[in-house]
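Course assignment 3, question 2. Fill in each field.
Student: A.L.
Task: Predict the tertiary structure for the chain below.
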Amino acid sequence: MGYELRRWLADRLPEDCTSGERLVALEVADLANERTRIAYGNQMLDVLVHRTGLASRKQIGKVLAKLAVRGVELRVPVRDADGEIVLTKAGRPLFAYEGRKLTLRVPTGGEMPTREVPLWGEHSSERYPHRGSTEAERSPCGGQEVPPQGDPSPQYSSKTSLLKPVRPEQPPAAPGDEHGELADAIAFLEALPAPWGVGPKTAVKLAPDLLAMARRQGWQLDNDLAARLTEYAPNIRHHSAILHIRIVDLPRRTTPTPAAAPAALPVWCGDCADGNPAAAKTGHIRQIYDDAGNGRPCPKCHPSQTRTAA
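Answer field:
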C-alpha cells in the first residue's frame, strides 16, 4: 500500500496540524495507492476508525474537514458528467452521497502547504539505503557541495541551514516579458472564491484571454475584477464555463465620476432672516422682507446671490 507515500506525507504535513489530524492523514496515506495516491473502498472509513482510535466515522469526517481548512484536502469532490464539481445547496463541494462512497486522495506537494524537508527526512542514506551513498563531494569551486552523479537532490551550502536547500536562482523576467504576467493571471484565476476558482489546467487555458481582455478593457488583476467575474447569478451550474464567457465578454471598466464638493456657505450678514441665529448655518432662510411680508433672497449673503455675483 502507501508506505512510501506515508513517509512522504509525514515529512511535509504543516507544523500546526494536531496529533489527531496528523494521525488521520498518515493512515489515509498508508491506505492509498502509491501510484494514484487514492484510497477508497466500502470499509475504508471503518479501517480508519479502527487504526486511529477515533469514536466513529463522523469523527473521521470532522478531522478531514479540519485538515481541509489547513490546506490539506484529502477528500475527492463529486463531479458531474461535464467534470464540474457538484455543490450542495449551501454552495459547498459534495464529497459523497447515497450510492457513492467517499474517496480520499493524498495531495501532491504543489496542492498543499508543506514544510521544508530536512536532510535526514528526504536525502539520508540511512533512510534510503537502496540509493547508495549520498555523501557529497566538495566542489573545486568551493562553497557548495556537489551531489553524487545521478542524485537528483538539491545542492546544499556548507554555511546554510540543513532545512534550507540552496537552489539555482531563476533568471529575472526580461522587460516586456509576459511570462510573469501570465503567471499572475493563472494565480488570480486559481484564487477566485469558491465555486469560481479553477484548477491549474483550466487556469492555463483562460489566463491568455483574461490578460488580453483586461488590458483592452482597462482592468487590473485586483478585487474589482474578481468581484466582476464572480457576480452572483441564479441557477449557475457550470461555473468555469460561465467564467470563460464573462472573461471574453468583459465590459470596459468605468470609473465613477466623483461628486462635486458642495460650495462653501457664505458668511451670514446678520441682518436678514429677521436676525434668526439659525441663518448662520442655513442658507435658504436668509431672506429679507418688505412691509407686506414678501421675502426675497438677501443680496449680501444668500448662497444664490453670492454665486451670481461671483
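Instructor remarks: The CA atoms of residues 78 and 95 lie 5 Å apart. Strands lie at 38-39, 104-105, 137-138, 145-146, 287-289, 295-297.
Grade: pending
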